Amino acid sequence: MSWQERTELLLGDEKVQQLKNAHVLVVGLGGVGGFAAEAIARAGVGKMTIVDGDTVDPSNRNRQIIALSSTHGENKTDVFVKRLLDINPELELKAITKYLEEEEIKELLDAEPYDYVMECIDTLAPKITLLKEAKERNLKIISAMGAGGKVDPSKTQIADISKTYNCMLARKVRKGLKPFRIRKGIKVVFSPEDIDKSKVIPVEGMRNKKSVIGTISYMPAIFGLTCASVVIRDLVEGKR
C-alpha cells in the first residue's frame, strides 16, 4: 500500500504526479519554515532544496518541529535531512547549511529551475534580498510575515504584500522593496492581530536581530502550514 494513498484519494493520480515532479526551495527552517518543509515533503513533492545556517537551540523547543532535547546543538539542516528522508526515502533532497549573503542568494536562485520558492527567513536584510531576486526572476514565491506576538489563528490571512496591514514585519518588507519598485506581486501569509509591545525585548549580539518577540507553540506552525498549503495548491492547480 502506498504511503500516499490518502493524498491520491484526495487529489487524484495526476495531481500527485505533478507534486512528485516539482522542486520546491525552502529558505529558513525555524518555527514557520520547519512545519512548512515537512508539510511539503508529506504532500509528496519529489525534489526539495532546504537552506538554514542555524543550529537547534533550547529556546526553539516551544515552537519548532525538530527542536527536542535530543537535537540541541545539531544543524537544523542535518536534522531535517534525516526527518524528511524518513518520511519519503525517494525524496531528492539538497541541504545548504549556511546563512546566505546577497551574492549567494542570487547563485542559489539561479542554480535550479525551482517550481516554487518558500521564504521563511526571520531576519530583514536577507528576506528582502531573496524576495527581490525571486521577483526579478519571475519565480513563484510565498513569504511568511511575522508570527511572533500573535495568538489568534483565525486572523491568519493569505494576501498580496500590497494588501498587508498592521504587521510590523510586512511594513518593513514593503519599505525595503520599495526602492526596487516592487510594491505588489508577492504572495504572503500574515496576521493583522495587534501585538503587545511589552512582549518585544531588544537584544544585542544576535546575528541580524535587534529584538526578540514572544511566541506560542501553534502560531508559527499555522503560518508554516498555511504557506505550504499555498505552494501545494498552486502547484497542482498550475497557478502563479
Helix-strand string:
HHEHEHEHEHEEHEEEH
β-strand number = 9
Query: Pairing-aware structural class of the strands and helices?
Result: alpha/beta
Give the CA-CA distance, first to last residue: 33 Å
Q: Segments where pLDDT lies below 50 for 5+ residues? A: none
Large-scale geometry: globular
- The number of helical elements comes to 8
Share of β-strand residues: 15-25%
Tell me the radius of gyration: 17 Å
Largest beta sheet: strand ordering? 3-2-1-4-5-7-6
Mean pLDDT: 95
**Major sheet details:** 7 strands, mixed
**Roughly how much helix do the residues carry, as a percent range?**
25-40%
Protein name: tRNA threonylcarbamoyladenosine dehydratase
Domain THIF-type NAD/FAD binding fold: 10-233
InterPro entries: ThiF/MoeB/HesA, ThiF_NAD_FAD-bd, Ubiquitin-activating_enz
Organism: Algivirga pacifica
Question: Can you walk me through this structure?
Answer:
- The chain has 240 residues and is an alpha/beta fold.
- 38% of the residues lie in helices and 15% in strands.
- It has helices at 5-11, 13-20, 31-42, 76-87, 102-111, 124-136, 168-177, 218-237, and strands spanning 23-27, 47-51, 92-96, 116-119, 141-144, 157-160, 187-190, 200-202, 211-213.
- The strands form two sheets. The protein has a seven-stranded mixed β-sheet with strand order 3-2-1-4-5-7-6, with helices on both faces. The chain has a two-stranded antiparallel ribbon with strand order 8-9.
- Helix 3 (31-42) links the parallel strand 1 (23-27) and strand 2 (47-51).
- Helix 3 (31-42) packs parallel to helix 4, helix 5 runs parallel beside helix 6 (124-136) and helix 6 packs across helix 7 (168-177).
- The radius of gyration is 17 Å and the shape is globular.
